[in-house]
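Suppose you are handed a protein chain with no further information: no name, no annotation, nothing but its sequence. What can you learn? This example shows the usual starting point.
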Amino acid sequence: MGVPSTADFLTLAQWVGLGTVLCGAIAALGFIFKWGIRFRFVGITGFMGVLTVGLFSLSLFPLTRSVVPGAIRFSTVYDSGSTQVVIAVPPTITEDQLTATLRQAASDLFSPGRLGRGRDQLLVRARTVLHPEDGVSQPLYLGEVKRSLFNRDDSEMAIALYRSSLKTLSAAVEQPQG
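A reasonable first move is to predict its three-dimensional structure. Written in structure tokens, the prediction is:
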């Protein structure tokens, strides 16, 4: 069985909502007839209400994750929570892998909850770290992608690769470390 769809969550929300109404009715009867269990049903009804709202909210946004062919693993180094993210990639990355990884990161890091702060685009920059000599680390930015903060399926993502950095990277990878 795969990831539940939004329709599955909506169906679950409806069933749990009916259970919530049932528990609320039992709680009301408990108060009318002064049953000792009435306060427990108030708590159960409240908890069921929270579950209903949670399942309904999961039915609003899909839980799908797109996979971009050729993308490699990356880690998030910096995320402002709004419009800027920096990811780290290995120094052995190729130009095609970098393009695919930038697309993958732009897809993975999209969230409708990001704050735009006057901007309508998310900027994801990719960097690696070179070690030109022992004890020295040099961050090297390789490219960036700009995508919409509001449209999940942004067909107008702008990918820019930093050619001079890619040349520096290929020279550093070819050069044997001493």
